[in-house]
Design brief:
The two termini are 30 Å apart. A hairpin with a 6-residue loop joins strand 2 and strand 3. This protein is of the alpha/beta class. The chain has 7 helices and 10 strands. It is 33% helix and 28% strand. It has a 5-stranded mixed β-barrel, surrounded by 4 helices.
Length: 236
């Protein structure tokens, strides 16, 4: 069986992949940070590129929005292209007064009420860890770059929480779990990585918070995303 949603040849994809949700952000990363770039996927406009960052070959590819979408693309990358590491780089909203707009959060694990892990693997746990080794590399790199990051449990939701009240979900989270922020993909990525015996981590740039007024303007959002992108690239 071959990959259904990725048209690249096996040799076109590096063993390390950065995955933003937005395929146009993948295009931006490739054009801004990589050299000798080649477009390796455009099926359904889920753009993917392979190039070099400081002589390190890397692929950057969109995942789409939500657990099912990243589940498809991450599985195909791990299963059919022998990818070893995927770092999700995305945006999210604060769920904690200590997590401010413009903070960068590294997910030690993800909590989700989603049935994704049960449907795909009969996994009944609502919390899945990211890869410890990959996280250590990211933390070490952040220290070298003097980039401040926060690390802890994130919430992966099935809805865009700017539009939906999820207080009934948050009320059911066990009291010992301290959620830092929410996003929509990490839980699915971590589960697929576990199934495939590969590595995955997730960095989240905080763009909104119920504890602060307003959202990031375009210029500040781009700078903060660039800091997170550079952290991921330097970590590999």
């Amino acid at each position: 069986m071959n990959a259904i949603h990725i048209e690249a040849k096996k040799e076109d994809i590096a063993n390390v992949v950065l995955m933003p949700g937005d395929p146009l952000r993948a295009k931006y990363i490739a054009e801004t940070f990589l050299t000798d770039v080649t477009l390796i996927n455009s099926v359904r406009n889920m753009l993917g590129y392979t190039g070099f960052y400081k002589n390190k070959r890397v692929t950057v590819m969109g995942s789409g929005m939500g657990i099912p979408s990243i589940g498809i693309y991450s599985y195909e990358l791990y299963k059919f292209y022998d990818v070893d590491k995927i770092i999700r780089i995305g945006t999210g909203g604060s769920l904690n007064k200590d997590i401010k707009i413009k903070d960068i959060v590294l997910a030690s694990n993800s909590y989700s009420p989603s049935s994704f892990a049960y449907v795909w693997g009969k996994e009944v746990s609502n919390i899945i860890n990211s890869n410890e080794e990959l996280n250590k590399d990211i933390i070490s790199t952040a220290n070298k770059l003097k980039t401040d990051i926060k690390m802890g449990t994130i919430l992966t939701a099935d809805v865009f929480t700017v539009y939906a009240d999820i207080s009934h979900i948050l009320d059911k989270v066990p009291k010992h779990i301290n959620l830092l922020c929410n996003e929509m993909e990490a839980f699915g990525l971590f589960h697929v990585a576990n199934i495939c015996g590969r590595k995955a981590s997730c960095l989240v740039s905080i763009v909104d918070s119920p504890f602060e007024e307003g959202m990031l303007n375009t210029e500040d959002k781009e700078k903060n995303l660039n800091d997170m992108i550079l952290l991921a690239l330097e970590s590999i």
